[in-house]
Amino acid sequence: MLRPDASARDWIAITDGPLPAAAAVEWATVPSAGAVVTFAGVVRDHAEGRPGVVAMSYEAYEEPAVRVLGDIAGELRRRFPDVVRLALLHRVGELQLSETSVLVVVSSPHRGVAFDAAEYAIDTLKESAPIWKQEHWSGGSDWAVEQHPIRPAAAVREH
After folding, report:
1. Nearest to 117 by CA among 129, 103, 106
2. Which of 55, 91, 116, 128 is most buried by its number of CB atoms within 10 A?
3. Is the pLDDT at 5 greater than 60, yes or no?
4. Residue 79: how many CB atoms within 10 A of its CB?
């Protein structure tokens, strides 16, 4: 996954390779930002009403998903104008337990904005992006049961 150039404010990508957490934190760490908040969503061994998950597969309608991630970045910057850098990275394909499926990195001058913006980013991504997950367990597989309708980034609640 290519890292954006040094002048970029947003790093938005969907990839089938491992998510570069250390590189994203390094990219977001700049002199004007006193806070860098990272959220990594990882594959766990259970899901809502389903124990024994052994892996997850993620699929994305890639072009619209990247466009939605851009919309989320735009709305996040409207709500949190002090955000310096924002990375929204999602992985697709089959992931094993403890592998990172989604990464949000936000930098800002102060921690409160960085925490609030990171929370908004992951909540909105989960509600807005056309990305779906399939749970795999020892007895079979099925699409995640807690899926919800997709909403525009601007419709997600205020923090």
Report:
1. 106
2. 91
3. yes
4. 18
pLDDT confidence of residue 155: 72
pTM reported for the whole predicted model? 0.89
As a three-state string, the secondary structure of the chain is CCCCCCCCCEEEEEECCCCCHHHHHHHHCCCCCCEEEEEEEECCCEECCEECEEEEEEEECHHHHHHHHHHHHHHHHHHCCCCCEEEEEEECEEEECCCEEEEEEEEECCHHHHHHHHHHHHHHHHHHCCEEEEEEECCEEEECCCCCCCCCHHHCCCC
- Crossing angle for the helix pair 111-128 and 62-79, to the nearest 10 degrees: 150
Question: What confidence tens digit (pLDDT) does each residue in 39-55 have?
Answer: 999 999 998 778 899 99
CB–CB of 128/151 below 8 Å? yes
Distance CA 27, CA 46 (A): 33
As a residue count, the chain comes to: 159
- Mean pLDDT score of the chain: 92
Which pLDDT score, from 0 to 100, does residue 2 have?
82
